[in-house]
Design goal:
Chain lengths: 253, 253, 253, 253
């Protein structure tokens, strides 16, 4: 299930997880960190609970759906990072629990003391998306709230791997924090990922050049504008049609 | 799967189960008992068959979905109580059987001789909801009918954990009784839970101050009234629209 | 999974299976045999692949969904019978294979040399429903065709336990025959069950007083007639409405 | 799960897989090879993940759904062939992984060094359907592209057993190639299968008389033409109806 490509010694590592989900916030955030920090692959997770297809990768090669662990050595003596993302969430309830459990086992083996999971929070954001936080440890949560994140409302559910890891981390005695970026959720949302990364950077004290996300944000904004125009036009036409029909009816009655 | 928080010695305990279901009757009843009797948590059930999300609890903390066992020491020398409720029913067929089996095993370990399960029965109640009873033991059923409960019609199904526990209790040689409160089922129904608790109190001879439920009942009644008004208004408008359209058509033909 | 109530010595037994399915043909046939022959329960199958509810049985008692084996001692020295029916088919693919496998194991333990499965075949029957046969053994099939059954068309699927038992019987070296009665399938069809029982009686040479089914057939016929009248009335009204609307339109154009 | 009918010694065998899928391309291709090469059955795969029905085969006999392995001895001293096809894909995610795994294990046991999987690729083909290729090995892919196949676009998914075998082959150290024939996918498409077989023949250097497929292709073409005419007629009538309605409306307003 887990295939390690390389044995790596890490110093006081923090694991950050972000699988595809609402607005792809988690996946975009991790992908950006991997690129900016030039993190290196060192393990894969495979599972029969991922969807049953393979992807054609570059040059006609083929690969199973999987999750990938990357590591990054922090030269400034602070915590090293383990970054985790993948192609897909597990497709069954049992699979969701199983994958979360595998990630936690892997973390335990590498002596991880803290896990941070990233996801999206369905909410129309005003200008700058907020970051909502929940944690298994009071001090960790308080520290996070000082970076500008807001506390998650009581009773709010956190769906999928980002949530289950927090729920299960207790059994492995690993502290865990969940950061959710506000997002409408139906389109990739790099702006929300940027908000989450800002909180992450304040917390963990590393620099991942978030300006690198701005181009992606501009593209996503254009896409939203385009879709809004299409929608407005459609609404206008529907209105026209309605008026035409009203007119006909008025003639009659 | 089952995590015991505390070893507890109980005297001749009766286990009462109420998970979320129709009208939330079971969950409301158990929650009320826990509060009124000041029962104490002593074990959790976790399962990969519960839905794959976690809940944010008070102060931004997070927890897995779970079932919780509480105990209450009966000072009057009668049976102690074990109370069980939780966040959710299991989401798969196998999960339903598994959870029921875990509850029964736990009961057996604590030398429980009788289990009572609580649920809702879909039926428009006249004024005061009736309580429908079924049991694995004739004497137990007769005793229950004397408290004002009515016998369940033959062939009627009892869905979910409340039913399966009765079906499976036979294999553990534990007597089991199911109490279903009449409810429309689509809204939380504390009035139905109150009816069930009255039967329970007569049976087991304890006092859980049911008046404490009256405020909740008043709130639920208001909610029903409000929804009925909305529905009436909607029906009226639909009728108006229909008349308008009829008029137009009449002009034509 | 299998609970034997009684150890029984059977002589050269044939097992006949009929679970609920199209037109309930299999279940009606077995139920009639059990009643007429006064066959006796001797084992249950329980499974977490049956639906997750229990049934209230007579006098407020409760039971799990299950399959039941009955036996009948044939005084005339011919084969004894094991009859199997139940509340429900398994609800999952794996469950379907598992239940069929359990039935075959049970048959093997009791030294069964032949299994006959009963089901429905979706086909508007002319007057008297035909019986369609398929078998794992050529001689058995030919013998069956001589009793008036017809051979199943090549490529035709047999869904559920009635089919899987035939497919899996090969691995247990037990001959198996499937008898499907023509039925529209959406209502209980005792007439189709009667046709199947006639073939069964010729094959196995016992007498189960099929006249006992005639009352049930008369009831089912009445039900069909009533539903047809409702349908005709509905069609007529739809036609009227259509004409009315046509008239309006004609006025206009 | 796997039942071997015969022990066979094969020389340097290549396994070619084609289960039912888009346009039945894989199944038609394998079926044609089996017939033309007079390949012989030597093993079955059974699984509780196949659909839960059986098929009536010739003469009223019955069989489980299954996959079948055939072998063909290549007299010209080149690679022998193992051909695999079946009645159905597995119906669950886990089943898909399991079946692919079984095929790979079987291949490993028979010392297969290369597997070729066949499927359909949803694309309106111009005249002659193209063949899209992906592979786990660069040389193998290049060799395939020289026979006229085209490289699969990056990021494109390959669904089902044809894809998973490539994804999983890595763990068994077997090279694997996937050939997908362009097809609209909703009807059996022997023309697409022919294109794939041409690539296969160039690659493996055997002769399977593809002209034998032409009759089947003609039939499929006729079917397509007939369906197109039905569709055109339907579209025309819809247009007529629309015009009639427009006329009516024009009179009114």
């Amino acid at each position: 299930m887990i295939k390690e490509l390389e044995k790596v010694e890490l110093s006081n590592p923090v694991l950050i997880e972000g699988l595809p989900g609402l607005g792809l916030v988690g996946k975009i955030a991790i992908r950006h960190l991997v690129r900016q920090l030039k993190a290196q692959k060192f393990a894969y997770i495979y599972s029969p609970h991922f969807p049953y297809f393979v992807l054609v990768s570059k040059k006609g090669n083929v690969r199973l759906l999987r999750g990938t662990f990357y590591f990054w050595k922090n030269r400034n003596g602070k915590s090293d990072l383990i970054l985790f993302t993948g192609d897909s969430q597990a497709q069954t309830i049992e699979g969701q629990y199983e994958i979360s459990d595998y990630i936690l086992k892997f973390a335990k083996q590498h002596d991880v003391k803290m896990i941070i999971t990233i996801g999206g929070y369905r909410m129309e954001a005003k200008e700058k998306p907020k970051v909502i936080a929940a944690a298994t440890n009071r001090d960790l949560l308080n520290k996070t709230l000082k970076t500008g994140a807001e506390i998650s409302p009581t009773g709010s559910p956190i769906v999928g791997t980002a949530g289950l890891i927090l729920g299960l981390s207790h059994f492995k005695r690993i502290d865990a924090l969940c950061l959710l970026g506000e997002t409408r959720g139906y389109l990739p949302d790099p702006k929300s990922a940027r908000s989450v990364l800002e909180v992450l950077q304040s917390l963990l004290d590393f620099n991942a050049n978030l300006a690198g996300l701005d181009e992606e944000i501009a593209k996503a904004d254009k896409m939203v504008t385009r879709l809004q125009k299409i929608e407005e036009k459609r609404a206008l036409e529907a209105e026209e049609t309605r008026k035409e029909e009203d007119k006909k009816v008025t003639y009659i009655s």
